[in-house]
Design brief:
The complex is a heterodimer of chains A (282) and B (467).
Chain A: H1 5-20, E1 30-33, E2 36-39, H2 40-50, H3 52-55, H4 94-103, H5 118-128, H6 134-137, H7 154-166, H8 170-173, H9 212-221, H10 237-249, H11 256-268
Antiparallel strand pairs in A: 1-2
Helix pairs in contact in A: 2-5, 4-5, 7-10, 9-10, 10-11
Chain B: H1 2-34, H2 55-61, H3 65-68, H4 77-84, E1 106-110, E2 112-122, E3 131-140, E4 143-152, E5 155-163, E6 169-178, E7 188-194, H5 216-219, E8 235-243, E9 249-257, E10 271-281, E11 290-301, E12 307-308, E13 311-312, E14 321-334, E15 337-348, E16 360-373, E17 376-389, E18 402-411, E19 420-433, E20 453-466
Antiparallel strand pairs in B: 1-4, 1-20, 2-3, 2-20, 4-5, 5-6, 6-7, 7-8, 8-9, 9-10, 10-11, 11-14, 12-13, 14-15, 15-16, 16-17, 17-18, 18-19, 19-20
The chains are: A mainly alpha (282), B mainly beta (467).
């Protein structure tokens, strides 16, 4: 935080020299969310104030608190982000980063930064994008298209259950969605840190949102940096919505899907085959 | 980690050096201004405990002080939301069951210091007509033991025992709060002893000296008043409050016992009532949103008590007489410059003071903070109070008028999530008409001649730390 007058002088001299040589400096990193334009320079002090304790001064997830945090903070130098609207393997949009920052990540130490003004948050997005060269060489992916959600029916829930079995979701999330599948204990993230699959029975909000659209987006984009893959190439949009409807029945929440499921189970429970290695999910 | 540590250490050394130079300079100037060579005697501080900087929360959630505080102890917008949510992040890990067994929600704060107090027109044995007296030396503030946290998800507690430097103990706060009733942030209930929901918090102000560490708007009472109310004092009662998800809209209503926070029901049986309402807007690119707020307090004090053997029976007060406090305040951000204006109007029933009229007075202040970095604050404040009507017409109208100015800085050599320390430098000066300044706290005396301007000055250099 102290003035680095020597460095400042050197940098200023270099800048002046470049200008004299007719070299135009690269534009400062910016971010745009709606009509708000954020600037990395303005985001830097905000990052120091709010973020560096965990994510580190250099964005490398080596802040002084990182060692005590589980799960570990995001390493911005890798430019790999869980919550995106863009296809797997692509950079997120500014809006994605803004939304993640605003929403926070439940069951982690990343709070919802909603009290910060939108301007502050967009400035932070701009600064976060300075940590990886990927933001200079690449562009964010094109957000996936999410078709309108069809009405939940018992048929869609049952089909979603079949997909849960067929796509082997249960291997990580467990047959009942408790996050206790046979692979759960072996999972690691892209930094080889252990990671737990989402436990639907906790009833907590999803890592990347709360709505059915958010859930649809999660398994169509995947959570990059985690074992949760994208299923965009494996299932059709209509199937994805069916899976959404089934997953909602695994949560202890009063959702329309849960009501449909309970009503059907009251008279058909015996017809179900268990989900798991021997089950068909039907 | 080593790289980060070394960088931090370098920063610490640099901050210490800069802070030391600035501090010494300010101290020399302030001592010169305040006439530091005067002989010893004292006017001493109003006992305002500054309690609310709580590293226990930073440890629990692994966040730096600067997340919840613009500079501690002042709350940032995020810190306000955190407090409004019952000291919870809302990440489904707020209940203590998620904490390591070794975690204990306690923090402590105190301030070793060198300070000088000087007050004019003080009567002494050797100078019955009055003289300027002063006292200077190394000293200690009290210690605040800050125990606050969650008993369970959405059940918050607070317990703040205090130990004054002279050994006196106290209970600054003790409450339980039920958060997010009905899963709504608009409904929260707090019961016990707590700070009123003041937008400009006196518990979190960044001033510590005898003359700067309180607000006239919160503590002034007219000459001869029997009222004991202080806005800045923690009160006992129940508060129902609510806020929007980002805490930009906030309200609170409280019912409070008529004892100014003293336990044991020493006063009457009626209840005081208070309300606050504020709204913030995300305008501009400053460090926080722009907030406007209003507040009001309708209180009562008994004028008669049941007695036994001539001694009053606690809690039996009757013949209540009312008093009223109304005000408006704001928190405005221009980049890193924060402006906090406050205006208030006050009146007491005539029966709570001398004379037959209802005394009324007004106050206004403007506090400015320049938050250069999360580790350096430069600040100033000017406050004035004017009597508009005395209870006793025989009392000069200007009696009790006050002007107070304060300048200071706080430098934080380090900023992380385990502890905090501020090098605190402050110069504060008040002028009161015909009365000893509130900073006298009973030690000073009114001037011999009514209408005399009494000047009181404080110079303070302290090491304010919490862990």
């Amino acid at each position: 935080m102290r003035p680095q007058t020597g460095w400042l002088s050197l940098v200023s001299a270099c800048g002046a020299l470049l200008l004299l040589c007719g070299v135009t400096p690269a534009p400062a990193q910016q971010a745009q969310v709606g009509n708000v334009i954020g600037h990395a320079a303005a985001g830097k002090p905000l990052y120091t104030r709010y973020c560096a304790g965990c994510h580190g001064d250099d964005g490398d997830a080596r802040g002084e608190n990182a060692q005590w945090i589980d799960p570990k903070p995001r390493d911005f130098t890798l430019a790999v982000f869980k919550c995106r609207s863009t296809p797997t393997g692509t950079l997120p949009t500014d809006q994605d980063l803004f939304d993640a920052m605003t929403r926070g990540f439940v069951t982690t130490n990343m709070p919802a930064w909603l009290p910060l003004t939108p301007h502050n948050r967009v400035d932070l997005v701009a600064y976060i994008k300075t940590f990886s060269p990927k933001w200079k060489t690449g562009k964010p992916g094109t957000p996936i298209t999410i078709p309108p959600e069809p009405a939940a029916t018992i048929a869609s829930v049952l089909h979603g259950r079949q997909l849960f079995q067929k796509m082997e979701c249960w291997k990580c999330h467990g047959p009942a969605g408790h996050g206790d599948g046979p692979s759960a204990k072996t999972l690691t993230d892209n930094k080889d840190d252990p990671i737990r699959p989402y436990d639907f029975s906790s009833g907590s909000r999803f890592m990347c949102g709360v709505t059915n659209r958010d859930l649809y987006r999660i398994f169509m984009t995947g959570l990059d940096g985690t074992p949760m893959p994208s299923f965009a190439d494996d299932i059709k949009p209509a199937d994805a919505w069916d899976l959404v409807h089934f997953l909602r029945t695994l949560q202890p929440l009063d959702t329309p899907e849960a009501a449909i499921w309970k009503a059907w189970l009251a008279s058909h429970a015996g017809e179900l085959k268990p989900i798991g290695p021997e089950g068909s999910g039907q | 980690m080593a790289r980060g540590f070394l960088r931090g250490a370098g920063s610490v050394q640099g901050s210490w050096l800069v802070s030391g130079v600035v501090t010494c300079g300010c101290l020399v100037v302030a001592l010169a201004i305040s006439g530091g060579g005067s002989r010893a005697y004292t006017a001493y501080s109003l006992a305002v405990h500054k309690t609310e900087a709580i590293p226990a929360f930073a440890r629990k959630y692994g966040l730096r002080c600067s997340v919840c505080h613009t500079v501690w102890p002042e709350l940032s917008a995020f810190g306000q939301k955190f407090k409004d949510n019952g000291y919870q992040l809302g990440n489904d890990r707020d209940s203590p069951i998620w904490q390591n067994n070794a975690y204990w929600p306690i923090a402590m704060r105190t301030t070793p210091q060198l300070h000088l107090e000087s007050t004019t027109h003080q009567v002494t044995d050797a100078a019955p007509a009055g003289k300027t007296v002063s006292q200077t030396g190394f000293d200690l503030s009290g210690v605040d033991f800050l125990l606050l946290g969650t008993l369970y998800k959405n059940i918050t507690f607070g317990l703040v025992p205090t130990l004054d430097a002279d050994g006196t103990t106290g209970l600054e706060a003790a409450f339980v709060r039920f958060d997010n009733l009905g899963s709504s942030p608009w409904a929260n209930l707090k019961v016990g002893k707590f700070e009123l929901d003041n937008l400009l918090s006196e518990k979190r102000i960044t001033w510590l000296s005898a003359n700067g560490g309180f607000l006239y708007a919160y503590h002034y009472l007219p000459v001869g008043s029997t009222n004991n109310f202080g806005f800045g004092d923690n009160q006992i009662g129940a508060e129902f409050s609510g806020h929007s998800l980002n805490s930009y809209t906030r309200y609170s209503v409280s019912l409070l016992s008529t004892d100014d926070g003293q336990p044991g029901l020493p006063g009457g049986k009626s209840l005081d009532a208070m309300f606050t309402l504020s709204q913030a807007w995300a305008l501009g690119g400053g460090l926080g949103p722009q907030r406007l707020g209003v507040f009001g307090y309708l209180g009562h004090r008994p004028t008669a008590m049941e007695t036994v053997g001539g001694n009053p029976i606690p809690g039996t007060g009757s013949a209540n007489k009312s008093f009223l406090r109304l005000g408006a305040t704001a928190q405005l951000w221009l980049g890193n410059l924060e402006l906090i204006p406050l205006v208030s109007h006050a009146s007491d029933d005539a029966a709570l003071g001398p004379g037959t009229d209802k005394p009324t007075w007004n106050s206004a202040l403007l506090e400015a903070h320049y938050v250069a970095t999360p580790q350096l604050l430069v600040q100033g404040r000017y406050e004035l109070l004017r009597m508009s009507k005395q209870g006793d017409p025989a009392i000069p109208k200007t009696q009790g008028n006050a002007d107070a100015i304060a300048l200071g800085f706080r430098a934080y050599p380090f900023m992380f999530s385990r502890a905090g320390m501020a090098i605190h430098g402050e110069f504060a000066m008040t002028k009161t008409i015909g009365t000893v300044p509130l900073s006298g706290d009973g030690s000073g005396v009114d001037p011999v001649t009514p209408g005399t301007s009494v000047w009181s000055r404080s110079v303070m250099l302290g090491f304010d730390f919490a862990f």
